[in-house]
Write a structure and sequence with these properties.
Length: 150
Amino acid sequence: MESVNAYQIILWMHYFVSASFLIIAVWLLFRATYGIKNNLPYLQFDKILSHAFIINLYLQLLFGLILFSNLSFAPNYDYQSADGSIAMVSKRLWPIEHIVLMLFALFIANLGLIFSNKSSIDKIKHQKILLYYSASIALIAISLASIYWF
């Protein structure tokens, strides 16, 4: 039986938070779009979803930084040999690109939350959430897809 190390546990937590983030993001974007289309009030539940979106991004940042700081324990990377280094460089230093894009996504999502909270008109709150959170999700999608594109 294979033993589970701390790296794998953190990686699984990172995946779990990613899955919950995806569910919250889809739900939030649906409610924002529906709220704009039907001119619905910005409810307390919408605010909770917005905060859950941000909290999930912060959890992703935390787990991602833990994973990144312990890359020497990652089973797929070999930094000790020349072949391992070449293989890592061929991935275009994806972990660094991923973290930078995730930080920008977190920053944009925080701006959306701040601007939506400062607005007093419900339709504008929904619009701000939809705009900024969609941009944040687009950055996340680009970051995740870039490992396969290049």
